[in-house]
Amino acid sequence: MLDRALIDRLRDAVGSEGIITSPAAVQTYACDGLTGRRVSPAAVVLPRTTEQVAQAVRACAEANVPFVARGAGTGLSGGALPVADGVVIGLSRMRTILAIDLENQQVTVQPGVTNLEVSKAVRPLGYFYAPDPSSQQVCTIGGNVAENSGGAHCLKYGFTTHHVLGATFVTARGEVAHLGGAVRDTAGYDLLGVVVGSEGTLGIVTEVVLRIVRVPESTETLLAAFSTMGDAGEAVSRIIAAGITPAAIEMMDRLAIQACEEIVHAGYPDCGAALIVELDGPGVEAEAFLREVIAICSASGATETRVAATEAERALIWKARKAAFASMGRISPNYYVQDGVIPRTRLRDVLESISALSATYGLRVANVFHAGDGNLHPLVLYDGSEPGAGERALELAGLILESCISAGGSITGEHGVGSDKACYMPKMFSPGSIAVMGRVRDAFDPGDLCNPGKALPTPRLCGEVPGMYRPHAIEVAGLAERL
Amino acid sequence: MTVSTAQELHLFSELVGSAHVRTAETDDAVGGVVPSLVVTPGDEGEVASVLSAATARGLSVVARGGGTKIDWGSPPEQCDVVLSTARIEGIVEHEPADLVCVVRAGSTLSVVQEQLAAAPGFQQRLMLDPPHSTAATIGGVMATAASGPLRTRFGTPRDLVIGASFVLSDGTRGRSGGKVVKNVAGFDVAKLLVGSLGTLAVITEVAFRLHPVPAASRTVLFESRSPGDLCEFAMRVGRLQVTPSVVDLHWPRGMVVARFDSSEEGAAVQAERVVDACGGRILAADEAAALTGALSREPWTESGSVGAIAVLPSRIGQFLSSMSATCDAIALRPLLGTGEVRFPPEAVEMVRSALRATGGRLMIRRGAAAPAGEPDDAVALELMRSVKQQLDPARTLSPGRQVGGI
Fold first, then answer.
1. The pLDDT of residue A75
2. Does B175 touch chain A if contact means CB atoms closer than 8 Å?
3. Is A58 on the interface with B (CB under 8 A)?
4. Tell me, what's the ipTM?
5. Which domains does chain B have, with CATH numbers?
């Protein structure tokens, strides 16, 4: 329960229509895309301006009450999980595109603007916003900044951190700072660089200046079929070795292809592994690289190569790929999605170890991943009605992460650490490294009020066992997919 | 040598070996402050010992790589020990098929590029070309956030670093990131170190994303005596559906150079498109190489103060018009609104006010007796102080070099 005085101050900050305290109504905000973990906040505030956010934060800080910023709640690592008896600051009403500055190739938006809205706003002018997480129809720029979101095309275009020029930032004490900005090269430390990807633990961004990119003249999309994942992996290595940087390289294994075909009917060949390779740039350039990539795929044992001849064919290839997670429901009652990264060169070893783990645990694993940058999304399939199956699936998913770490990779490529993986951090970073990150956090939020318990391990958190996956309401409604 | 210097020489000799500690000379001065000792640790463990010993004794330490940018930033308030990274060098790992490398901080950029180029069966490099890049070290380039013409396409060290190891002044050894390009685990501490001017930690190792060396290049040259025409050309290139690696404007030469790196077909078609739409001419390969070589040293070629500037790209024309007579040499990246200018030391306030008038800022790189940069935002400056306080509470590392006297 919140102190009456704090509720009054929050109401003063955001108005009566901007605060939710009813125990039933706050349930909407009890989880993000990691639906297995739920915590009810004491109150939710829905500010419309930077000043309202700052006032709400000041009220919380002065009352020593923790607060959690939230965008659309599509995150998959529990980064927006509320703190019990704390306040959620929902930014969904801050959804105005404040300025489009074509001359300087940048736009300024409020944090509740969705990722896709940015591209939609500038597309008619010949520009787009490059980071494209699969949830881009619903996920917000504020959430993207918190998670340093990627997407299929970050292989060529980079991540959120490469596209954020500046931010208006409410500190954990409720002061307003301007980090970076429309003009590059702020004097002093690159605070924005550490805020992007800090999972909402350092403060709250309330305005963001984004870099926009010219739409490429031409895009070529290739679908290549291989007998084995090893052959497909070999083709990826050869494409990279040839000095080609495709816009995207995605890979799916047989199980994932079969599941996708059940719902999308995109006409993927029945094969051991499929690669989607996308090349963009001036027409002549994209075509030249496409010819080279086709030759490399054939030399690596591709059994079939197919180039999308029309925009509709291209869209269908991507639709199947993006439906990969959702389609798992056709072949399994439940699944757990993992997000690990490995060096590309270790692909064969890690896939072999995933396959061995799958056999040991008697659970199927479908593999879908961003092959170009080694970001694996193994989907561990299980039947939740079978006693202990959920626990076994989580254990298997955890062992997959450990094989990513021992291959020299990472515990998360794009979903974030959140509350889900905080306890894996010590497997990847030394106590000294985690201590330094903790000191950075303390520099921004000495009171540990801003999204506490996320991103970095805490003894309390690491004593808990994560829950099982349950689909989020927006997934059930078909508004977003897990990728 | 004072008694205390003799004691310190003995102390650091115990830690890194007497062959790697010497008394400092005038040439070792940092921003005019002459240290007592130069200590050259051999590995990260020795860096940690040196830093904790210095902190325990209240000594200030300035880390130095090639020394090519040692004057960037304000002069240190105090400098007792120069910590040279000269022995912490070499490539730790280069996996060409992954397009990543891990290098020790004291390695020079030029040696790193040579070794990367020597990998059999691959053609790749680190897409950084900061000033003085022959002697510049990886650690120094990180600490100064130095970049060159390639910034237009590939960014600064912050955009290419994927992980870093470092030592804090209390001897804590830390790492952030890793050696994979895509990774969101933990805070991106490496980004705080880029441009920190050595005030937060001593960088010992850096992991970078690499890029393939392009198969072909084409360079378009546009010449004019009109600052307005030069800027207009650059901005028009920026609006085309092309991906230049370099778009640099040089004054008083009166030139814009736009370079396209891609496949043979890709480079040619982009260069032709620029000439058709915006003018200029495509240079022959040898002419392009000679010109690029000459331009890469601008504006550092002659004596005078040098400052880095930043304005909105749309204000570059205004800045250039107002400063074309005051500055002796101007090298700009118009599409980013950044660049470096050389001017007589007495003109520093004129340059600064011209930038203020265009909503931009000046950061001194060489020669002017003025603060290296100005904080933009009071709350942000407080956060910066707080970061310094957390990571280097004793203010051992390069005190006073960062904005606001941090």
1. 93
2. yes
3. no
4. 0.97
5. 1-213+375-406 (3.30.465.10), 216-295 (3.30.70), 305-366 (3.30.70.2740)
CA distance A150 to A158: 7
> Over chain B, what is the mean pLDDT?
95
Question: What is this structure's pTM?
Answer: 0.95
Give Cα A206 distance to the centre of its chain: 20
Q: Tell me which chain A residues have a C-beta less than 8 angstroms from the C-beta of B402.
A: 188-189
Q: If you count residue pairs, one on A and one on B, with CB atoms under 8 Å apart, how many are there?
A: 270
Asked if the model's pLDDT at residue B322 lies above 90, the reply is yes
List, for residues B247-286, the tens digit of each pLDDT value: 999 999 999 999 999 999 999 999 999 999 999 999 999 9
Checking if the pLDDT of A466 tops 50, the result is no
Which residues 313-352 of A are in CB contact (within 8 Å) with B? 341-345
Residues 59-98 in B contacting A (C-alpha not used; CB under 8 Å): 95-98
> Does residue B230 contact residue B239 with C-beta atoms inside 8 Å?
no
Task: Say if the Cβ atoms of B380 and A191 lie within 8 Å.
Answer: yes
Burial group, residue A406, by CB count within 10 angstroms (0-12, 13-18, 19+) = middle
The chain A residue lying nearest B95, using CA atoms, is A345
B158 vs A: CB within 8 A:
yes
B337 close to A (CB below 8 A): yes
DSSP H stretches of helix in B210-298? 227-239, 264-278, 285-295
Altogether, the residues listed in chain B come to a count of 406
| Highest-scoring range by mean pLDDT, A6-15, A472-481, B374-383 | A6-15
Query: What are the structural domains, with CATH classification, of chain A?
Result: 4-93 (3.30.43.10), 97-214 (3.30.465.10), 218-326 (3.30.70.2190), 332-462 (3.30.70.2740)
Contacts of B197 (CB under 8 A, 6+ apart): B72, B73, B143, B144, B372, B398, B401, B402
